[in-house]
Each structure stands twice: as structure tokens, then as C-alpha cells.
# Entry
Amino acid sequence: MTASPAPDRQRPAVTGFFDPQTNTISYVVRDPAGTGCAVIDSVLDIDYAAGRITHDNADRIIAFIQDNGLTLEWLIETHVHADHLSAAPYIQNHCGGKTGIGANITMVQDTFGKVFNEGTEFQRDGSQFGQLFMDGDTYRIGSLNALVLHTPGHTPACMTHVVGDAAFVGDTLFMPDGGSARADFPGGDAGQLYDSIQRVLALPDDTRLFMCHDYGPNGRDIRWETSVAEEKAHNIHVGGGKTREEFVAFREARDKTLAMPKLIIPSLQVNIRAGEIPTDDSGRPMLKVPLNGL
# Structure
């Protein structure tokens, strides 16, 4: 299914929050006609070497919501992130809202439940989240209509959230000079990623696209908003009519040269739990380091 917003699309107000430690952009998406809002891809701060969790990024978002008199309705994860920890439970405790992720989270939970040797008490049915989205599902942020598109390739659970004239693409795409995300994690597939990108690029040309990451290629300033038209014309990995075969060959060769994300081990353990930090038998927060498992 290729779905596009209606010609008279709504225009949400979008505010980005950039985390320089992980190059992640979190978003507050607001209904300009009311107080309803959603948080997309929040970040929990971690000093991995020291084993210390803090909440500076989440506190900025909480302050924004409270200072603007907003009502938090949703905490959305575009996918199970491997490069940062979700702050969804922390923000939810302060502001409310319902968590949501793609229904294929169950596949990711099953894969990494084995990697981290999780016991039978770890549920692999996605029940840690408030809502499991299927392709084509809809929901509302205040009076705004939101549509969910399944866009796998980077991970099996990747979803693009289309809210009026804005689409939040997770790691499906980067800015035009950044290209695309890797497809070599368990369950990833370069061909699927190409197909998913084409689905995003089938949205109207003026659709605003919001990235989950930006790394400032060639020293430029950090940016996180582009458009379908700009991506189709200039994306260095898929723009200008590059074929599926060209993309797959390039992506697979490039992925073989990439190191694992620095925070993949803590991120996956936390994010498959909807942002909750695992504990040991005594109830203390505790992370595992599987050897030769990734």
C-alpha cells in the first residue's frame, strides 16, 4: 500500500531537539489548533563508561511541553534504536501519554532476547508498549491525523509516521548529503530498505521529511528537515534515479566497513523494553555485555 496525505493536508508544528552525544533529533509534534502533542524518538542520557544515567535531554522536552501548556498524547518510537536509549518512560511519568512502536517489535525482541540471554520473564510480545502499529494504521494527535507506514530494511520494526504534510522517517533516510542508514543489523535488508525509501519518496514532493539523525557531513551545520523533492533529486545513495541493484550493491559493501554503534549494547537492552532499564535479581538496574554476540 502506498498512501499519501490528502491535498488539503494539515500542517503540524514541529520542534526538534538535537542531542550532540548521539547525533539524534527528538521531536515534539503539536496540533497548532489545540494543545495535543506527541514526542517522537526521545533520548535518555548515559555515560556508559561510568554506568550513569541522567535526563538532560528528556528534561528539555518536558519543560517545553509544560511551558507551552501542551497535552502529551503519544510517545512514538520509529524503531528500536541501536545508538541511543529511549527516555519514553521518564517523560511519560512526568507528562503522561501512550507509547507506540511498530508491531514487528516482537521480531526484534525475539532476536535480541536470545543475544542477551533474557529469561522467560522477558515478554517477547510487545506488551511493554501501549500500542503496536500495523502498516496503514491511523491515530490522532489532537485534531491532527497521523498515518503509519511500515518501512523496514534498517530494522524489521521501522515505521514512518506521516502527520499531515510532515513525515518522520526514523533511520530510513538521512539528509540528502548523508544518504541512508545501514541495513546489516539482524533482520535488516538492503533491498527492503530501498523499497521502503521509494515508498517514502512516493509521498507528495512538498512533504516535509524529518530525520532521526544527522552527522553534519563535510563539516556543515546540523540539519534535520528536508523534503521529498529534495531527497529524490539529491540524495547521494538513492536520488537521481539510482536503481535497486545499484543501491543494494553499494549499501552491502559499505555496511561491511562500518563499526558497531558505541551504545548498541545498552540501547538494545533498554529499547526492547520500551525504555525501561533491566534489573538483576535483587532489583538493581543492571546491563549485560554479551561476548561475541553481535
Q: What stands out?
A: The longest helix spans residues 56-67.
